[in-house]
Structure formats: structure tokens, C-alpha cells
Specification:
It is built from four helices and four strands. The chain has 116 residues and is mostly helical.
């Protein structure tokens, strides 16, 4: 038989019964089940480190799923950002326009004004 919380003892007469199963073994069994669950997902976590080649590109499964973020890429992007910020608004504008129009470093854009 499943015990019920003693709600009626506290004057709560119109509340349906609430099951109450807390015993000393229940928290221990819960911890045991959680530990078992963590062991179940280990193979999936370990498989993310397998190396695969897809369309001529070799990388780990994690890299294919979530992208690559090596410390070298981060350092390169940080240096590039510092350079853009050092030039102020002109550097920001140059970077945006250069990427949008496929310009390489050193090239400038020509702006045309069209009459209405």
C-alpha cells in the first residue's frame, strides 16, 4: 500500500490524496539509477571523438556536429578584431564592405550615386 501525505491532519479536507513514498532506500535507489544513466551515455560521448572523413574533410565527430574552434582560429580572429577596432569606424566600415563585396585587403570600394 502506498502511503499518503497527512494533509487532512493539517485541516486540508478537500484535497485529493497525494502519494508519499519517501523511505531511506528511495534516495539511494535514485542515486543508483542516475549513476546507471550516466554510464549509458558514455559510449555516445566517447563516439564524438572518433575521426571521420566526409567530402574530403577529416575531423572528429564533435567538429562536424558543432564546428571547429581551435585556439589558433580564436587568436587569429582576436588579432583581426583588434586591427578593425584600432581603425575605428573606418575600419569597421571597410571590413563590412570588404566582406560583402568580396574585396581583399588593400582594395577600396567605389560608391555610385544614382539620380532619381
Amino acid at each position: 500500500m502506498i502511503s499518503q501525505l497527512p494533509l487532512r491532519d493539517f485541516g486540508l479536507q478537500n484535497i485529493p490524496a497525494v502519494p508519499y513514498l519517501l523511505t531511506l532506500s528511495e534516495p539511494l535507489l535514485t542515486l543508483f539509477r542516475l549513476a546507471g544513466r550516466s554510464l549509458e551515455v558514455e559510449p555516445a560521448k566517447n563516439a564524438l571523438s572518433n575521426t571521420y572523413t566526409i567530402a574530403g574533410q577529416t575531423a572528429s565527430a564533435y567538429d562536424f556536429l558543432y564546428g571547429r574552434s581551435s585556439s589558433d582560429d580564436l587568436a587569429r580572429m582576436t588579432i583581426e578584431l583588434e586591427g578593425v577596432l584600432a581603425k575605428g569606424f573606418a575600419g569597421f566600415k571597410e571590413k563590412i564592405l570588404g566582406e560583402n563585396f568580396g574585396l581583399s585587403d588593400g582594395q577600396t570600394t567605389t560608391h555610385h550615386t544614382f539620380a532619381r
